[in-house]
Specification:
CATH class of the largest domain: Alpha Beta
Radius of gyration: 20 Å
Structural class: alpha/beta
Number of strands: 14
Number of domains: 2
Order of helices and strands: EHEHEHEHEHEHEHEEEEEEEHH
Number of helices: 9
CATH superfamily of the largest domain: Dihydrodipicolinate Reductase, domain 2
Strand content: 25-35%
Length: 336
């Protein structure tokens, strides 16, 4: 339906929604956020007033009953992703759900069954997978710019020990691996274009929260390896590097690049020169990955196309994460 915007409803007033997703989607070409809900109606009203959203509801079910909503953005805590995404789908609303879309592979399978039964579109909100810098990085690597890709190394972390924060509540699906380590898994798979053959995980759990606060992972792919460390209790940082037989590529702020200024890709295809004289940068124009994500999902609805990160991909990602957790318990390599 040319010219029509998808009317979005937002479940909850989570930080990622009010800081990132809603402002970006409101500026999108194909998105219009028309309703927001919270279990605290006042919080929903405050968010609606701030972002110029027409409707504010005091419950999620009330929003799902709104006949003027086409799609739902679900940024609820991890343990609520599957149940509320299923309820939204059963209300015949398309669903864009925050990552990780589930806390286990069997729960992703429930979403797939719901999608197939209801006929709606359901996708995972890995916004990084639509950012032009990541698309260009994958293109550079697959074109052979750094030779054969042999190793991906990632380190992602921040410090948060607030016991009431959802990221630190085990029964809410908290912990470093599900919160930020999932990015390292999906981006490795995205760039390599294959699934890990086996994985090894090492978890250090916080004694008060029982969530993994420091996690290191090795993933073996058919041709090469990916290693990463993620933590909720180290200084804030984000780094990803790709090493090939003829060079390397590095990205700073790989997950949360600024949306108001250009970003860069570091390319060094003269690895024999330790001075760094062979380093060049490719510049990617400023863009908002959340706006791109919202528009691509909306166009998939309007044109009956594929969503950016479909559930079939989410299932493979969660299968790998499940194997990492198993490995941390067994102390051995595990196969996804």
């Amino acid at each position: 339906m040319p010219g029509r915007k998808i009317r979005w409803g937002v479940l909850g007033v989570a930080s990622i929604a009010v800081r990132r997703a809603i402002p970006a989607m409101q500026n999108g070409e194909w998105c219009e956020v028309t309703a927001i809900a919270s279990r605290d109606r006042q919080r929903a009203q405050q968010a609606a007033a701030k972002f110029g959203i027409a409707k504010a509801y005091g419950s999620y079910d009330e929003l799902l009953r709104d006949p003027e909503i086409d799609a739902i953005y679900n940024p609820l805590p991890n343990h609520l992703h599957v149940p509320w995404s299923i309820r939204a789908a059963e209300a015949r609303r398309h669903v864009l759900c925050e990552k990780p879309i589930a806390t286990s592979a069997p729960d992703v399978q429930k979403l797939i069954e719901t999608r197939d039964r209801t006929g709606v579109k359901i996708g995972e909100a890995f916004m990084v997978r639509v950012h032009p810098r990541w698309l260009r990085t994958r293109e550079l690597i697959r074109s052979g710019r750094i030779g054969d890709l042999r190793l991906i190394t990632s380190s992602l972390g921040y410090f948060n020990r607030e016991l009431k924060n959802v990221r630190n509540i085990a029964e809410f699906g908290g912990g470093a691996l599900l919160d930020i380590g999932c990015y390292a898994v999906t981006l490795s798979r995205f760039v390599v274009g294959a699934e890990p053959v086996r994985v090894m995980g090492l978890l250090e759990r916080d004694r008060d929260t029982n969530t993994d606060s420091l996690t290191s992972v090795m993933m073996e792919f058919p041709d090469g390896q990916s290693t990463f460390t993620c933590s909720t209790q180290i200084s804030y940082h984000q780094r990803v590097a790709f090493f090939g037989t003829k060079g390397r590529i590095e990205l700073d702020r790989p997950l949360n690049p600024p949306n108001d200024q250009p970003t860069r890709i570091l390319i060094d295809d003269h690895p024999g020169d330790p001075s760094g004289a062979g380093i060049v940068y490719e510049t990617i124009p400023a863009c908002d990955q959340f706006a791109i994500q919202g528009d691509l999902f909306s166009r998939a609805i309007l044109e009956n196309g594929d969503v950016p990160v479909p559930l079939d991909d989410s299932l493979k990602n969660m299968t790998a994460i499940d194997a990492i957790f198993r490995s941390a318990s067994s102390g051995t390599w595990e196969r996804p």
